[in-house]
Amino acid sequence: MSFSKSSVLNLFATAIATISIGFGINAIVRPDHGLTFFEWEPPADAALHRMVDSLMAIYGIRDIFMGLVIYATAYYGSRQALGWTLILNSAVAFADGAVCWTHGQGQWAHWGYAPLIAVTGSLILGADRT
Fold it and tell me: Where do transmembrane segments lie in this chain (predicted)?
């Protein structure tokens, strides 16, 4: 049996999903702390702070949704669907890092995580069977 069919990769996928859901819950419940993953400070202005809190809730809901999609695909989907779901999820982490890069900081918190997700997805797709 190749590693791409190993149940260990499903465990990695569900760990990635759990981390995503944890980030999402944190962003909703503690938006100021959620901003620390971008290395941004909450705005001092009350109106801007409320807007950032709302945007963090949207970000949190997105992360929770992505985690639930990974759970569902790992449980009900094909190996190919799970692999591609993870690779596309890594693109979101890369894009988050790109936004941080345009602000001059915080990108490596995302860019360091994206390859882990992409490699896990690639292995599930059978990248180890060359």
Answer: 7-29, 56-74, 81-104, 110-127
